[in-house]
Amino acid sequence: MTRVSTGMMNNDLQGSLRLQESRLSRANNQLSSQQRIQSLRDDPLAAGHLVRYQSYLGRVQTFEKNAQVLTDRLALTEGYMDQSLEIMHRIRELAITGANGTYTPEDMQNMAVEVDELLKELVQNANATGPDGNSLFAGTRTNRTAFDIEMATVAGASEPKIAAVRYNGNVAGNKVEVDENAYLETFSAGNRVFWSQPQELYSSRDASAFRVPADGVISVDGHEIRLNAGDNVYAIVAKINDSGAAVKASIDPVTFGLNLQTTDSRQLWLQDLSGTVLNDLGLIKDASQQPPYNLGDSVRVSGGSLFDSVIALRDALLTGDQEAIGGRVLGGIDGSVSNLVARIAQSGSEYERAMQNVSRNSLTALNVTSMISREGDLDFTKAVTDMKMMEYVQQATLSNAAKLYSSTLLNYLR
Q: Which residues fall within 8 angstroms of residue 256, CB to CB, at 6 or more apart?
């Protein structure tokens, strides 16, 4: 039972005013933030959806940015490869010209001067860096120069020339996340892009009786291959061929040594990660030597880089060796051109895929933003109307309260 007293009207009036002020304050906060949900209790279900949508939108925007950065890098890399291809076309023209036998030794030496300058430009392209200062063709060793050059005296030249170009990076790929648990992996290792022919390794060590002494892991062209104790050389060959590496292993029918050959133009990368299997087979030196220049002294190697082909052309022009130019030198240059074309095509394909991810993530972000708007955005027209109604009710309440308490002490003194 409610007791009616003189303070009842005042308490009810004060409670109603506080409730109206609270609703008015909430409406003002909604209008100022343009958000319908100010606290979880306003709409728990929508608040839960809103948190998940906002989290997913943040990830999608990151994926889009990752794909965009990747397209920028691929476009920059492809530009350097395109220029290198144009240089190689010019070098091939000089090789054909120098091999026709109608030019004097002086003329061929003049051609060698141009070839040497083009060689320097190729090395400059191979050592290119991006806007962030990272090397473009060093694999994941982006903080170092991709290729080192060795200067030496060359027959027919009056000053030291570039005698060798050595790769200084690695063969690891760059993985970029472009969707939930989806990655784009790009390979820009310089010893693949700037290579001329498939590389072949021939071990002279008899491996017919070889057995793996203990469990170990070897790395072939960046692929880890686990070997078990007791595996013979035929098991090793099978595991290499099944590893997914672009390498074909075989047993030499004469020496019974382990032979390796890349399936495309690239430099072979071998390493003992655990154990000494490759060292025991005579393919590489001990673990103190790092790839790719850790091959065993008794290993016969064939297949060189693009730079080796250009250096061979320059040296042949300097000495007037027309037979070499029209044979192995021109063949090496043709291999370099073919490999560059293949790598440019691969880079273009990766760029197109990255652009597809940019477009998809951009559309996904737009759709998720629409979901967030549906769950959390304020209906501005309705909110303004409601606020005006609440202001009208508050003013009416205050007006009635003023009439209720219009009597003052002066009324009792009359």
A: 206, 207, 208, 233
Q: Residue 35: what are its φ and ψ, rounded to 5°?
A: -120, 130
Structure-token pair, residue 67: 């794909």
Residue 268: Cβ-neighbour burial (10 angstroms; 0-12, 13-18, 19+):
buried
pTM: 0.81
Nearest to 172 by CA among 135, 240, 221, 218: 221
pLDDT classification of 30: cutoffs 50, 70, 90: low
Confidence of residue 100 (pLDDT cuts 50, 70, 90): confident
Helices and strands in the chain: count of H runs, count of E runs: 10, 11
At residue 164, the 3 state secondary structure works out as: strand
Give the pair of three-digit tokens for residue 355: 């652009």
Q: Which long-range contacts link 161-166 to residues 24+ away (Cβ below 8 Å)?
A: 161/116, 161/314, 162/116, 162/119, 162/120, 162/123, 162/307, 162/311, 163/311, 164/307, 164/311, 165/123, 165/126, 165/305, 165/307, 165/308, 165/311, 166/293
Residue 346 has a pLDDT of 93
Cα–Cα distance between 324 and 116 in angstroms, integer?
17
Q: Per-residue pLDDT tens for 313-330? A: 999 999 999 889 988 999
- The encoded tokens of residue 119 equal 């060689």
d(CA 55, CA 337): 48
Q: Give the model confidence (pLDDT) of 249-276 as tens digits.
A: 999 999 999 999 999 999 999 999 999 9
| Confidence check: pLDDT of 392 > 80 | no
**In the chain, what are the helix, strand and coil shares in percent, each to the nearest 5?**
55, 15, 30
Q: Does the pLDDT at position 373 exceed 70?
A: yes
- Give buried/exposed letters for 360-389 (b at 16+ CB in 10 A, else e): bbeebbeebeebbeebbebeeeebeebbee
Tell how far CA 142 is from the center of its chain. Answer: 11
Q: What is the pLDDT of residues 242-251, one digit of tens each?
A: 999 999 999 9
Whole-angstrom Cα distance, residue 285 to residue 153?
A: 29
Comparing CA positions, the residue from 223, 236, 241 lying closest to residue 277 is 236
User: For residue 334, which of 344, 342, 322 has the smallest C-alpha distance?
Assistant: 342
Query: Do 162 and 151 form a contact (C-beta atoms < 8 A)?
Result: yes
Q: What CA–CA distance (Å, rounded) separates 277 from 219?
A: 11
Is the CB of residue 115 less than 8 Å from the CB of residue 333? no
